[in-house]
Write a structure and sequence with these properties.
heterodimer; A: mainly alpha; B: six-stranded mixed beta sheet
Chain lengths: 793, 190
């Protein structure tokens, strides 16, 4: 009902304005001053209404003031045509009602100023005083808004053509300040207006009024543009008077808006120099004011200021901006007990950004901010609030992004304390962010103590939380990615110094071992390889006679034994076996026979007891044979024992073809290139013959079942043939032409039996044999000539 | 002209955190038609990364690979060439040229791509060409004391293959190239 009335009245008033404007325009067009004045006064009369709500009144006002523009131009033209301004000034005062009269006076007044016939200051003073006649808050507010608008381009502002001396500047300043003051008072009165209709309407009106505070704020924008407002003027005159009005209006939204206006409109170095005053106003504002927006706006501006102008930096220290801001925030947080955690963290976040921008060399400041945040959070306890968690992550990420160096972060004593307040998942996410920073920036963590500090920060990833296991809650893939990040991290924990590096290894191990069986298979391998790299470096360097116990290859290998054992217990047997073999090779290179033997023993035991899957056995055995074949450190006896065992395992593999292959590979264990005593021709041939027996058994089974993969077993023979050729070429005296011949004939007869040929393997082998026969250098071809190959297919 | 990237033995994250940045910036998606990987990635993230460089990805199983489904050996045809792929820990003695030649005869391929030793090699023998792209991350090896990160790019054009090897030595990428020519389209006697 009420809304409808409002619309109706506005429509009626607007129609009246339009109509009068039309006649006014007609009068202007025919240079009829009298009529122009008459109709404009009538038009402005519509603004005398009390019926409209603030928003609707605003619409009407816009209409009317728009039309007044042509009137202003007309006045200007008239004066150009010779009409005296003073006369015009007189004439408009004949308008019947005050409000239209004052609008017209402002219009003509602004033309008057431009003419420079009379001192601008007098006119301005006149106008601003005269407007007092309208004490109705809404009407008065818009009248003064019009005054500000119409005089704006006539004031000596920065970049305008109007110059002036200090006096002119002061006059303009005074004018704007006064207009601002009066407008604010009117606006305040509107808030406390007597009981209007229903409560609903009052609420609606109050909201609409709040929007109008922008008209008040406009004056601040004008002030910001004025010439002659230097730091002294700002500090002594402008700021105190503005702040007085801001505090007096006692409305939280307006206060917030106007404070923000001040911060945005005036230069940053002004703010820096008046920081006390500005911050001092904050506690005087309404308790419900969103102070964090105000303060964060201020800090952001100051940060950008510091970032953009290096010369300004000393000023920050000089006025002790940091402590003032820190203190102010502390007071705000203290005073507003209901402030949600996310808001107080946001405040500290802005302070932190400010500190990082302005005082990036002062780690103690940064730590202080972190500490203040911790004190604040300790009141709230661990956070379950998503929003606050997000803010804390932003808070912790800020120094990471600024310094790009986790080592610096490790120096901040309060950093881990802030992390304590994150819930488990967010804590882990933050740990990942820290690791990413290290990976991305190639940061070296070079001391054992730094390693400790780092693992303290990422402990959410390293071990289970408070004794609970994550178990089903966490996604398998996510968990693996997490742990792989930790694994990658290990490669950045590094120091060239052979004294420090072992300490680092020990520390890493200490932390990783708390991880539990799910984590160990992912985190132990990088530790092992880091240690193996260290051992290799140690071998390369000089012996340090003063080095402590930890810095010998033997000690490290001992540590590795104990470490890989843990893996074996965590049922990662295949991995453990591989790592034992790697360690054995390292021991071999260090000439530590007993240690190497020990590793082989452990590997063999794992093979016997834990590795039962057939495929896994084949691969594991292949690795054992490959590693053993390269070992040089064993004496004859040890070597024999290990070789004998390996051959034994080979013969006991489940599938016969696998057996055959493993056994013939064992032949290599009896033949090493270096050293004559490592070449046992007989044993080689024994192995090959043993393998052949197995191949025979395979062939028998294949022949029995008629055509079932008979090609497969012929392939075994061809493989054996190739092995014989290998040892023939190496000069094994036990490999004779006859041996090879008979095998070749066997292949031929078996191939004939089968439907398909032996395939390309035999073809390429024969081709190779022929090629070797043709070799120019005598040695090879001699050997091959011993083989009679009439059966060449 | 077909570009084939050959690389392997990255050992991420056991022995290395990632490929060298200089290599990563060279491996741009869309330029390469095939990837041949000798194995030991070791984790899915590396598999996914390689897939973004080229979707036609072939991997042989290394002894530390997390995914047990990669094959022990793989044979593929690219242009006029038959390529064989095998990690190499299966070939005893490790890195032995004659044993590798035996594998090549068995697979009957023109080019055998193999790894495990973390040592770049490319040579021609009676049975064809053997290429070892080394370790793309320069990972620790018990076989090779001094490992530089390396990978290989093969440019296959008709009967000719140009092998480019990229090695990171003292922070700089050094390139070398070797030419190989097939005498005919089959492997049978000339």
């Amino acid at each position: 009902m009420i809304a409808d009335d409002d619309e109706k009245w506005l429509a009626a008033a607007t129609a009246a304005v339009k109509q009068n404007a039309f006649y006014m325009q007609r009068a202007i067009d025919s240079n009829n001053l009298k009529d122009a004045l008459k109709f404009s006064a009538q038009m402005l009369g519509e603004l005398r209404t009390s019926k409209l709500s603030p928003h609707k009144y605003y619409e009407l006002y816009i209409r009317a003031s728009d039309e007044l523009r042509s009137l202003e131009m007309f006045f200007r033209d008239e004066t150009a045509r010779g009409c005296s301004i003073a006369e015009l000034y007189e004439l408009v005062q004949h308008a019947g009602n005050i409000l239209p009269r004052l609008y017209l006076l402002c219009t003509i007044g602004s033309v008057y100023i431009k003419s420079k016939d009379v001192a601008a200051k007098d006119i301005l003073k006149d106008l601003v005083e005269m407007c007092r006649a309208v004490q109705h808050p809404l009407r008065g507010l818009f009248l003064r808004s019009y005054l500000a608008q119409v005089t704006r381009d006539k004031l000596p502002s920065i970049g305008s053509e109007l110059e002036g001396d200090t006096e002119t500047h002061m006059d303009a300043l005074e004018f704007v300040l006064q207009n601002f003051t009066e407008m604010n008072k009117l606006w305040v009165r509107m808030q406390h207006q007597g009981p209007t209709r229903e409560k609903e309407k009052r609420e609606k009106e109050r909201n609409e009024l709040r929007d109008l505070v922008m008209t008040v704020g406009k004056n601040l924008h004008i002030l910001g543009q004025l010439e002659g407002v230097d730091l002294v003027v700002y500090r002594d005159t402008v700021l105190p008077r503005i702040l007085e009005q801001v505090v007096n209006c006692k409305d939280e939204l307006a206060q917030c808006y106007l404070m923000d206006c001040i911060i945005q409109v005036f230069p940053d170095d002004f703010h820096l120099q008046t920081l006390d005053v500005l911050l001092g106003a904050c506690p005087q504002l309404q308790p419900s004011v969103d102070i964090k927006t105000v303060l964060s706006g201020l800090m952001e501006r100051l940060s950008n200021y510091a970032a953009s102008s290096v010369e300004a930096l000393p000023n920050f220290l000089q006025v002790d901006a940091f402590s003032k801001l820190n203190h102010a925030i502390g007071k705000v947080v203290e005073a507003q007990v209901d402030l949600p955690a996310s808001s107080s963290v946001t405040l500290y976040l802005f302070l932190l950004k400010f500190t990082l921008h302005v005082h990036s060399d002062r780690l103690d400041y940064v730590d202080q901010v972190l500490g203040s945040c911790v004190s604040q959070l300790s009141a709230t306890g661990k956070l379950c609030d998503d929003k606050a968690s997000k803010q804390i992550v932003a808070f912790l990420s800020a120094p990471l992004e600024k310094f790009n160096d986790v080592v610096t972060i490790l120096k901040l004593t309060n950093y881990p304390r802030v992390m304590e307040y994150l819930d488990h998942d967010t804590n882990k996410a933050m740990a990942i962010i820290i690791i990413q920073s290290i990976l991305k920036n190639d940061t070296r963590i070079a001391t054992a103590d730094e390693v400790d500090a780092l693992f303290e920060l990422i402990k959410g990833l390293i071990k289970d939380f408070d004794g609970l296991t994550d178990n089903d809650e966490i996604d398998e893939e996510d968990f693996q990615e997490e742990q792989n990040s930790v694994a990658r991290l290990v490669h950045f924990l590094y120091n060239d110094d052979p004294e420090e590096m072992p300490k680092i290894i020990f520390r890493i191990r200490k932390h990783i071992l708390t991880g539990g069986p799910k984590r160990l298979p992912l985190t132990i391998p990088p530790l092992v390889f880091s240690a193996l790299k260290l051992i290799r470096r140690m071998r390369g360097g000089d012996e340090n006679p003063f080095g402590d116990d930890t810095s010998t290859p033997q000690k490290i290998l001992q540590l590795l034994t104990e470490t890989v054992e843990v893996l074996a217990d965590a049922s990662a047997s295949e991995l453990a076996l591989r790592l034992y073999l790697q360690c054995a090779q390292a021991a071999n290179d260090c000439e530590l026979e007993t240690v190497a033997y020990e590793f082989f023993t452990k590997a063999y035991l794992l093979y016997e007891e834990e590795i039962s899957d057939s495929k896994a056995q084949v691969t594991a055995l292949r690795l054992i044979i490959g590693t053993l074949q390269r070992m040089r450190v064993f004496n004859v006896e040890n070597r024999d024992i290990l070789t004998h065992k390996a051959t034994g395992y080979s013969a006991k593999l489940l599938k016969k073809p696998d057996q055959c292959r493993a056994v013939y590979e064992c032949a290599h264990l009896y033949w090493a290139e270096e050293g004559e005593n490592l070449k046992d021709g007989e044993r080689v041939v024994l192995c090959l013959k043993r393998a052949q027996k197995i191949a025979d058994a395979v062939q028998k089974m294949a022949n029995a079942s008629r055509g079932a993969s008979s090609t497969g077993s012929v392939s075994l023979y061809v493989e054996l043939l190739n092995k014989y050729l290998y040892f023939l070429e190496k000069g094994n005296p036990q490999v004779t032409g006859e041996t090879i011949q008979s095998l070749a004939e066997l292949i031929r007869s078996e191939t004939k039996k089968a439907e398909s040929g032996a395939g390309t393997f035999i073809t390429s082998t024969l081709r190779y044999m022929e090629f070797q026969r043709q070799q120019e250098d005598g040695g090879m071809s001699e050997k091959y000539q011993k083989i009679k190959m009439e059966w060449f297919e | 002209m077909v570009l084939v990237l050959a690389l392997g033995d990255l050992h991420v994250p056991h022995r290395a955190a990632d490929l060298p940045p200089k290599f990563k910036s060279m491996l741009v998606p869309g330029k390469i038609q095939h990837i041949i990987c000798t194995g030991n990635l070791c984790i899915k993230e590396i598999h996914d990364y390689l897939k973004t460089i080229c979707p036609d990805l072939h991997i042989a199983r290394g002894e530390f690979d997390e995914d047990a489904r990669y094959p022990e050996t793989k044979i593929l045809t690219i242009g006029q060439f038959k390529l064989g792929l095998c990690h190499g820990h299966q070939v005893i003695p490790w890195g032995d040229l004659d044993s590798l030649a035996m594998l090549q005869r068995q697979l009957d391929v023109d080019i055998l791509v193999t790894g495990h030793t973390h040592q770049f090699t490319a040579y021609k023998h009676e049975g064809g060409v053997v290429i070892n792209p080394g370790s793309a991350t320069g990972a620790y090896s018990s076989i090779n004391q001094d490992v530089n990160p390396s990978f290989v790019l093969m440019d296959i054009d008709g009967l000719r293959v140009v092998v480019y090897v990229y090695e990171l030595i003292d922070g700089e990428v050094k390139v070398d190239k070797i030419d190989f020519k097939k005498t005919s389209t089959s492997n049978s006697a000339p």
